[in-house]
Amino acid sequence: MSMNFERKLTIPKEVKEMYPLTDEMKAVFDKRNEEIKKIFRGEDDRMILVIGPCSADVEDSVIDYITRLIKVQEKVKDKLLIIPRIYTNKPRTTGAGYKGMLHQPNPMEKPDMFKGIVAIRELHMRALKETGFTCADEMLYPENYRYLDDLLAYVAIGARSVENQQHRLTSSGLDVPVGMKNPTSGDFSIMMNAITAAQHKHTFIYRGWEVHSDGNPYAHAILRGLVNDHGQSMPNYHYEDLRHLFELYSEGGFENPAVIIDTNHANSGKKPLEQERIAKEVLYSCKYSSDIRKLVKGFMIESYIEDGAQKIGDGVYGKSITDACLGWEKSERLIYDIADRL
Prior knowledge:
By secondary structure, the protein is an alpha/beta fold. The protein has one domain (12-341): TIM Barrel. 39% of the residues lie in helices and 16% in strands. The protein has helices at residues 12-18, 23-41, 59-76, 113-131, 165-171, 188-198, 239-252, 265-268, 274-288, 290-295, 328-341; strands spanning 47-52, 80-84, 135-138, 152-157, 178-181, 202-206, 209-213, 219-223, 226-227, 233-234, 259-262, 296-302. β4, α5 and β5 (178-181) form a beta-alpha-beta unit. The longest helix has 19 residues, at 23-41. The radius of gyration is 19 Å and the shape is globular.
């Protein structure tokens, strides 16, 4: 056998019993979830900002970053609802490299999945308890969602996972908005098929159980750009792209048509400073077309304390060890600028 089975991991129910939420934390979670759903239902015209580090690496600097958002959220609360990114799983195109806090709670040490499960739950709990924010994470592994399902406000399905059946079916059973990214090829039909699947009922196997899902009416699109046949990054946030997406939604009979614009990744060519310009262009499209304004529910922005990125071991506080991010000062200014333009 080519796999070595090291140990049986603790199931989600037991981890939740070890690290339970207080009644106060549950109340904040429920209140925030309803506010977010109202935006996706069109009952609240604020936009959502899913903003934060490319990947959560060091707990203290992540909490420091999220704590800084408290004051900003208060100032823009009439225009924006902020959902901090705590991305604890990092997809790797070739399988090599840092795979996130779930795998390596300490990036300098070897992988330890149990320590990782505990670390990501404690980090999300600490964010909720200390800042009042429920946060977003990427569902890289559908079977692991249950370790955090009482904490997450928003779930993203990545460009390399969106065509996977288990991701789609699991998303159909979630009670929070799930964003389906367009695949790296840019094919909108794959993304729209994923949204269709997630919005419908299914029966499937999950963690060894036969489960029945009710469908998720808050499954929606995330546009993240694409890579063409020559390996070049190409954007898909322009007016024509948004208009095309609006028409696809109109033809399909979807619930709560919505899109979040990912301002980094292939949309920016992984040039994080471009995120400011991209957000402003999308807001201009929203001003020009009421259809697009109703469709665009917000932005996904990669942001941390320091501009750029570093190698693991460089030790710069609050600087990404994966994709380059927009630093705090520029991020704060961008948030206020977006609010002023709404």
